[in-house]
Each structure stands twice: as structure tokens, then as C-alpha cells.
């Protein structure tokens, strides 16, 4: 039995907390020490989780002890399991000892639908050995109200929802919270930023006295204080009472002691060079493994996808326009390794200026008034205000969120093709890699002021203040003990690729992007369960739709672009392009000499052949050379 004392896990002195946290905290090296239900431990073993992460080791005993907690731990530190395991354990134990009628024992509030479906799937994984002893329902799915009502009528033990959906169903009387034991707010710092303040105010009076609050957050920003006071300063009748103080678990000290596993780089480049760089990175495999490429908006998503497609580089796309089921499906496919490159439009960043979020909140409240899942303005208050062109209304989903909370597995690199607007958003984007103790890399393309608006076809307004944003990012990362380094990339070595870049960029026209966007949506609609039935009954309509897609050649494909001929490769191979250690050299100089020697031999034998045929070798070579051009 090996237990490790971790006295450096200090609870900040300014924070009030319960008895448990003031005693020395022990980090157990084994899940078995947490004394959880055997069925849960079996599931943990099956997931191949050997050791609880710090937040799990600390939070699980406190939750089991009945304390309100507010846990702050970095993204990817295993917060979901930290609250799910003790909750499931409690419900299983209670059911064993008491003959109680089914009721909702735990409500898990999350800011986005994607996160709701991810938490649900984690819940399912960890209850797989519990049979029908415990039931969880995700009520954020887009489905008939009747279906949701029916699912809630069966009184699931655990309900996973956004605050918006919770308010709706509580108000309609379909979701009873009077027997609630646990209220979890996952990504607590984000919930108010998403404009859910009013919903939280509505939910608070419905909570019974004595419920236990579990708040999970990546930061301890003022929003979290506000949320805590909204939830914990009311009694069951909704009137104000003395505020309960949750025990605060701040894992910063522990995290600071960890060896950083994330390397961060930036490369300053011109607007069109972003495309050149990404082409080179993928074509020469400068980055190996799974990569999430973040871009500024949905159009950019398809533009980049179409651009890469021309070089035979396959990718999948994730954006707020896609139906939530499709988004979950994309994440699953990416996690399974069907795709190695995922292009995500982070157009609903965890936005707000660095100073505050009042403006954002206003935007979000306006959004709140709209029905969920229907046409809505972009939530990026700041960006839309600065760039009227981005103001257009479109079918995106206000509960969409990529850079926060979603668990992309084994991502080796987060590539900020477009830098986010805030350092906060940057932190959350890079949190998609180097998760659960793994190593990772973040690479960001930055447009210097003097290069902004210099290449109209690839210019976007979001990049106007890249340098200012980068300064803030560097400052924030330095505060957290991390460095953002300059990536030593030798652009001169890529000259040979430039004409291909121009060729490919020309093909990705605005019409092509629009077509690709529409086609993807059509495909998703065809695949949606309801329409599937419709098309089964009306096969002609489906045929018509498919024919339309076949006829739509969004981008004129240029087969020659798929292949990178040797003569285009920089001499010295990949190593010559970048001196950075994050990259693996592709061809050594020695090998290059062999290649050159082979090429020389080949041309000599061509010369001999031509001589044998009575041709003037110089002339024939010239003709061949011109033909190639
Ligand atoms: N004890 C553990 N051992 C190994 N892997 C773990 C452990 N706990 C969680 N993980 C894995 O770590 C990843 C991150 O977990 P999780 O999504 O819960 O983190 P998080 O802190 O909630 O992150 P975020 O704030 O980004 O949502 C998941 O893939 C999860 O399966």
C-alpha cells in the first residue's frame, strides 16, 4: 500500500474550508484506496486508469464526506471522473441500503451540448457494470419534447443538462429537484460567460436544503464567486440565507511542481504564408500524430479543408453549424483515429476582453431570449462589434463550444492557424493537448501588424491585433511558468512550394467554400435519423440530392498537387526547414547525396540511350525540360 503525502498541495489561506482540507492531504497512488464500489473499480481497471490524478485523489474523499467543494485544476486533469465516481458510488450504496423510490439524485450542469454528451458517455463507461442500478439521462439532445418528458418521467438518478434546458424542464414541472443530493457545475467559470446567469437564478430556488455543491473549474475567476453565491446563498424557499462556503481545492501548487509537458511555439508569417506553412507541415509530416487546427470561423474551416484536400491531405471539420449529433460523431471519429487532422472553427471562443465580461454577458443574454438551437447571432460580442462583416446571422448553435471541456484523445499538437482573440481562449485551446500527463505541442501562426491586410484573398479581420494578443498570451503563460518560444522556421527553404500554393489557393474560391459548407450540411441532414426515414419513403428525393452533390465540383482538383516531387523538397530535408527539436528530420544529408548520385546516374544513362538512338542529347533534354514546365 503506497501512499504519498503531498503537503505542497496548500489550500490558499484566504479561503474558508471545511475540516478535511485543513488536515495533511494524502495523494493515494491507487483507486482501491478510495474505497469505491467494486463495480466502479472494475470499470476503472477496464479504462486502464492506474493512479488517480491529483484532483481525483483530493476531491473524491471530500465529496464522499459530504462537503461542498470548488475544485480548480487545469484542463485535462481528470475533473469529470473526480465528481462522477463519488456520485455514482453514493447512489449505488444508497440503493443497496434503502428501498427508496427513484428520484433525481444528481444534476450535472455543463455549458455546452458537446460537453453534456461527453459527460454522458463517461458516465456510461463507468456504470457499465452496474446494470439497471443506476440511470443517467442527457436532456440536451435535440429531440421531441415528448421524448425528453418521457425520459424525465422515469426519474433518472443522474441528469446531465445545460442550465438553459434545466430551467425549461424545471419550469414545466417535468424535472423535480426536491430529492437532489448533488449539484455539479462542470466548467463553472464558463457557465456565466455563456449567459446562463438568469438560468442559475431560476434553478437555485428549486434546489432542496442540504444539497451538496460540486463546482469544477479551470480558473478561480470572479465568475466562479458569483456562481457560488448564486447557488449557495439561498435556502430552499429561495430567500437569501447565510452563504455556505465550499472547500476550495486549488491544485496550482501541484501543477507548478509538475514538469511542463506542453511545448509552445509561435511563428510570425504573412497571411498567405499560413497556408504555405500548413501545407509544408502536413506534407512533410513535420508534426506527427493527431492535430487540432483552430481557425477563426466556419468559412475558414472549409477553405482550409478544401485547400488541404488538393494536396491529398484529409481532414474533418467541426463547427457550430453542424448538428450536435454530427459534432459528437466527428469528435468520436477523431478520437478513434479515423482522421488525424481536425479543423475546428472556434468561432464561439471563451470570449470577452481580458478585463471583464460585462459586454459578453449582455450579448449572451440577448441570445438567451432566442429559442435554443435556432438561428442566432455569433456570440463573439467583441469580434462582431469590431468587424461588422462578421455580424451576419447564421445557423449556429449557442451551446457550441470546442475549446473548452471536450475530451479530444491523444492530440499531439494544437495548431492555432488563426490566433484566438484572448489569452483565455488560447489557454483553453492548448488544453486540448498534453492531457492526462501526456506530452503535447502548441503552435500558433501570428500575423505581424506590418503584414496584416497585405494579401487580401487570405486576410481575415480577426488577425488585426495578433501581436497584441500574443503579448497577453505570453504574459499569462509566463505567470503560469510556461514559455512561448519562437519557432525557427526557415521560410526561404519553402520557395519551391510557393507556386503550388498560389495554384491551390486560386482554386478555393468563395463559391467553392459555400458549396462545401452546404454539401456538408446536406450530408448531415441526410444522415439524421428522422430524415433517413423520410428518404426511405421518398428515394427519388435522396437520389436528386445526391446527384446535385455529384454535379457540384466545389474545387477543380489538380492531381499533380497531391504529389511532392523530390526536386521541390528543400535540400537538407525537414531538418533544414526547422531547427526545432519538436520535429523529426526526414532525410539526412548523407541520404541526400545518395539521391543526387542516383539522379546523376539516371540522367547519364538517358544521355547514353539518346546517343544510341542517334539523338542529340542536349536537344532532347531541353525539350523534356520545357515539356515539364
Ligand atoms: N486517473 C486517470 N488516469 C489516466 N487517465 C485519466 C485519469 N482520469 C482521467 N483520465 C483521462 O484524462 C482525460 C481528461 O479527463 P477530463 O476530461 O475529465 O479532464 P478535465 O479536467 O475535465 O478537462 P477539461 O477541463 O478540459 O474538461 C480523459 O481522456 C480521461 O479519460
Describe the structure.
The protein has 629 residues and is α/β, with parallel strands linked by helices. Helix content is 43%, strand content 11%. The protein is built from 25 helices and 16 strands. The strands form 3 sheets. A 7-stranded parallel β-sheet has the order 5-6-4-7-8-3-9, with helices on both faces. The protein has a 7-stranded parallel β-sheet with strand order 12-13-11-14-15-10-16. A two-stranded antiparallel sheet has the order 1-2. β14 (411-416), α17 (423-430) and β15 (440-446) form a beta-alpha-beta unit. α3 packs parallel to α4 (79-97), α13 (298-309) crosses α20 and α17 packs across α18. The longest helix is centred in the last third of the chain and has 24 residues, at 589-612. Adenosine-5'-triphosphate (ATP) binds at residues 49, 51-53, 56, 73, 75-81, 218, 405, 407, 409, 431, 435-436.
Key structural traits:
629 residues, alpha/beta, seven-stranded parallel β-sheet, 25 helices, globular, disordered N terminus, disordered C terminus, binds adenosine-5'-triphosphate
